[in-house]
Amino acid sequence: MTEQAMPFWLTAWKKFCSDPLALTGLIGVLVLFFLAVYAPLISNSRPLLTVDASGNWSMPFLPVLFAPDSTETTVERCFNYLMLWLPMAAILWLACRKSKLRKIRKIALLLLSVAMLVPFMTVKKRLDKTDYLAQRENSKQLMVFTLNPFGPFEQKGLPHERPSARHWLGTDNIGRDITARMLYGARVSLAVGLAATAIAMLIGTAIGLCSGYFGGRFDLVVMRLVEIVICFPSFLLLLILMSMLKDYKFEQSILVVIMVIGLTDWIGVCRLVRGEVLKARVLPYISSCEVAGMPTWRLMVFHLLPNISGPVLISFTFGIVGAIVAESGLSFLGFGVQAPTASWGSLLKQAFEDPFYCWPLTLFPGLALFFTVCSFNFIGEGLRKIFDPKNSP
Q1: How far apart are CA 68 and CA 75, in angstroms?
Q2: Whole-prediction pTM value?
Q3: First vs last Cα of the chain: how many Å apart?
Q4: pLDDT (tens digit, 9 = 90+) per residue, 170-189?
Q5: Which listed CATH number (1.10.3720.10, 3.40.50.300, 3.30.420.40, 3.40.190.10) goes with 179-391?
């Protein structure tokens, strides 16, 4: 198949893979997603399997997957759902590869997705204070633990222990395992980065698309409102809104951070989409659609939007970086994700008084942020090279 006959996505993928930095960034993001999604199978204080002398077995970690013992239950359930859904969906997809079963593959995936929601909606949260590590030492039960047998909330060590075979990255200021808190903190960063940026993209794209297409007074009013919002420093506006909402003591602090960042970060996307629509608005294919009597919403959604999707996709990638850094900054200042939820920014905050003595709390969250920011930036730069006409051969 020649390059001219290839689908666009296949050509774009070949260009993306030919860029070493972009491919490195993609691998880094995939590793980060794997660690975040499968954090309960890597670091957990509850055993994966217990077998007593009579042969009876149980899985103490399983109920907590459906009803997490955390204040941020929504985000935890979403990641736990992905952890269980991804392998089962892959098995089902591979099992339906035959031509006779391909027609029912999508229906089977839909039924699987709905069925897996049932335990997450029916299982009730229960308090389990059992010290399974001590129980393993004092009993003859067979207990299979994760690689790192500590959760993000349990105080199983002394404050500020150095990295060792027991605590791989050391402990924080009250004796919690840093490895566990780093893994579960990755969930917070990805949830905020993806969800907040998705909200900002949805709002900014919708407003920019309408403003650029309709023009006139509507465009004039929208742009004046955008300029008013731009006058406010975005991070200062985040601090003000978070401090106001913090007084109401929301338990789901991650959802508050997502909404605040998403509702304040759409301005740049709006201006970008408006500019792209103004350029595409005068092209012949838009005039042809209008002459043919195509409904305005269909023209905007199915013709204008796909043709400006390249810059929007690039902006989405870089927006994730901005949202992750914003969340870490808010948590570092005490206005972001609230304790005891693990966050990279809150880990950095614990080392603020003495960064050199608390160097594990300075080094490892800092490296995680650096690694994440670089990975997404490399992907964004790779996408920019794909969609930039100047880079076309």
Answers
A1: 10
A2: 0.89
A3: 18
A4: 999 889 999 999 999 999 99
A5: 1.10.3720.10
